[in-house]
Amino acid sequence: MAGPAIENLFREGRSFPPPPEFTAQANAADPAIYEQAEADWQGWWASQAERLRWFKTWDTVLEWKAPHAKWFLGGRLNVSDNCLDRHVDDGQGDQVAYHWEAESGERRTITYAQLKDEVCRFANGLKRLGVSRGDRVAIYLPMIPELPVAMLACARIGAIHSVVFAGFSSQALVDRIDDADARAVITADGAYRKGSVIPLKQSADTAMDNTDRVRTCVVVRRTGEDIDFTDGRDHWYHDIIADESAECPPEPMDAEDVLYILYTSGTTGKPKGIVHTTGGYLTQVAATQRLVFDLKPDTDVYWCAADIGWVTGHSYIVYGPLANRATSVLYEGAPDHPGRDRFWEIVERYRVTILYTAPTAIRSFMKWGPDLPAAHDMTSLRLLGSVGEPINPEAWMWYAEHIGGRRCPVVDTWWQTETGAIMITPLPGLTATKPGSAMRSFPGIKAVVVDEQGQAVEPGGGGYLTLQRPWPGMLRTLWGDDERYRLTYWSRFGEDVYFAGDGAKLDEDGHVWLLGRVDDVMNVSGHRISTTEVESALVDHPAVAEAAVSGRKDEMTGQAIAAFVTLRGDRQGDERLASELRQHVAERIGKIARPANILFTPDLPKTRSGKIMRRLLKDIAEGRELGDVTTLANSDIVSELKQRSTAATEGE
Ligand code: WT7
User: Fold this and answer.
1) Which residue from 18, 159, 180, 520 puts its CA 20 to 30 A from 434's CA?
2) Atom 13 in ligand 1: which residue has the minimum CA distance?
3) Which of 177-181, 294-298, 433-437, 611-615 has the lowest mean pLDDT?
4) DSSP state, 16?
5) Does the beta carbon of 388 lie inside 6 Å of ligand 1?
6) Rounded distance from Cα 23 to ligand 1 centre (Å)
7) How far is the CA of 415 from the centre of ligand 1 (A)?
8) Is the CB of 4 inside a 6 Å radius of any atom of ligand 1?
9) CB-based contacts of 285: which residues, under 8 Å, 6+ apart?
10) pLDDT tens digits, residue range 481-538?
11) Distance, CA of 455 to CA of 296 (rounded, Å)
């Protein structure tokens, strides 16, 4: 993978060692953790598992019959027992589990004891409604406390939850209900989004009209509007819990019993049901929460600003924090409602110490300017995290400076729905971080960058990211489709090598730089250029707020680079600025990386989870018909983008 490269970024040699005060108090303060884990990785994971409460300890740490792993065989535990009862039994029932804040400003504080009671009541209610161990329950709820309650209630009785992001359509819900054969649905009458009401129950009704699988539907009253009720099937949540006891013994689950299914999109139209189990998953989310986020249960206020509908929320709003007895912020709304300083207001109010968010959010904050965070007291913050896509060094630096006040380590954490928990990351008390790099494997994890033939590349080389050892939080299979599981992840480089689908480079120190999905790597005149590299270069220009880059077919060069650019403030794009940006990219990376087309746009098309829809951009850039854009958060800009694209090409 020769050619123009991210080398320019490496050469800057920017590296930020952890502040000594941070290391002095860090949960991971001794660099020997890496060697210890390496010397006996199974034993190291077992020592992490021992921190949980087991009804029965395991007989075997790992059984690995590639590509199938079983962790902590013979062990029995319950996830909700670990997340709730354990802390209440320790005398910590009065500690706040969640500071919930609604978009409207409504607030609720929930202690561990209260959360346990509510989970038990709902668990009893679910049992009364006929839900039992092993049954699948679809959960279609907004970011309200009843969402973690419903997940934990399922975990308590051994039912398998399948959370469907509340921003998804009824079609997405029915597909997931059918695939998992879910017999119960938990939803709400409505959800709030930027001041308006989204009729969630109506959407669930449409889904349930299109399948005959659902026997029971529990509805949380949230917005209070009129909804249709189907007798015998539908029940109010508040009625269900009203008469139930707050005692519900946790079901002793086998370590390998399924905890949940979470669907994620693959290369085909049919989403993949990622299957996570109990003991290994909880071990890894708990260990990473403690060591990567340096969580101190007595003093920290932790906030992961994702939605629980995605894996980030499953692992780092619900299971990881609760397993560690964290006090968390649970926020329902958007970052720009009612004001663009909503996040900073929340940080200030709750004295948040640890913030975990996504590069796309950070770039929005950059676009809105540093005055908004500067107007709030954010000195409580001591650690920042990033997840979801490669973070461009400029956004990293902005985050560290304007949010972290140059005081907070930044952890860029690479993982996937499939991995269940963080895999590649700095440890904040140990790692000298480099803006833009996720750095190295978490202890016990073996991430390897390989070439086409599956050979590990040397420092300085690039290729495909693989995982060459099973890990406790790994997906066990795809729900109902083990063949697809083998094919998607374990066929490209052999049965015991997990292919992550991401491109990556190693710098001269052997640190990992993620380059985006391999399908996002462009090939221009035989040179491989990552969309991320070009985006980083563009965003590095003072006029640029956000950029998305896509390869498009080109007769001469194989692919040419199309760039979609949003500008800061009121700046307008014109031909002069476009050529300035091309020149800037040329200076930053090399002439080869100069975009052939630059399209200025007020916004970029994104999925509801905030990922830029590069495939759609590619379609626009190549002038093809657009596909399904219903999941766009901002679909109105698509037609505009398309028009501008046509204009830009005609003007050439
Ligand atoms: C894909 C997984 C893991 C929670 C959110 C996304 C990309 C994720 C990073 C990072 C570079 C990243 C990868 C990965 N990704 N984190 N820190 N640096 N890329 O979960 O929806 O399963 O997506 O997100 O491309 O494969 P997901």
Assistant:
1) 520
2) 389
3) 611-615
4) B
5) yes
6) 27
7) 5
8) no
9) 315, 316, 319, 320, 323, 420, 421, 473
10) 999 999 999 999 999 999 998 999 999 999 999 987 786 667 676 565 778 878 988 9
11) 41
